Amino acid sequence: MLKRKRNGPTLLPQKKHYRQRAHANPFSDHALLYPSSPDTFDWSTHYPGLKGTPAFADIGCGFGGLLITLAPLFPDTLMLGLEIRVQVTQYVHDRITALRATSTQYQNVSVIRANAMKFLPNFFPKASLTALFFLFPDPHFKARKHKARIISPTLLAEYAYVLAPGGIVYTITDVEDLAQWMRAHLEAHPLFQFVEEQELRNEGKGPILDAVYGATEEGKKVERNAGEKWLACFRRIEVKRQT
Questions:
Q1: Residue 95 placed within a domain
Q2: Does the annotation mark 39 as catalytic?
């Protein structure tokens, strides 16, 4: 729900008007709409006046804190948040709309309601992304629910498909068990290579890392509670075929 100041600019939406459960079952039928292939999707409706396809994808973007922080820092990079929850997606959409009404800096950011565990290749062409973000994902603590974790051997094959060689997977969580799970699975995959945080900062990715640590609602909550965060980043490597 957006409100407008009397004779003033549009206010940002308030979360209290977008009530939603904290998590959604990724295996449920959510009656989602998705393109049959990336080349059938019209991105111009998401990025008015801009051309191209997204290069940054925030999987389970929540309330959009990462995207809103990064958008003005990388104005030439198209960014997309994917969120499965209806009300949360609507909040991010309304937030972007309000920001666009008062600034020209947010034309490069958008959000889609989507289930990334099922339909990611339907939206993104092969090797089109340069950054994938998995920030404070649902830990699915019970062993019988580990199959619902967003990092798994099957899903990593899809992430490797849409991520360009040299692209970075950013993961962070405040759950140590989940941190170990995500790192172990990424390290075991032949197309991903662990990269130290300092190396990424030396490459100029410090602003991205700072946003990963502190721009999201979950990240801020962890800081308020004096909790610990585990960051692990991986580079998509290119394997040369033998002739």
A1: yes
A2: no
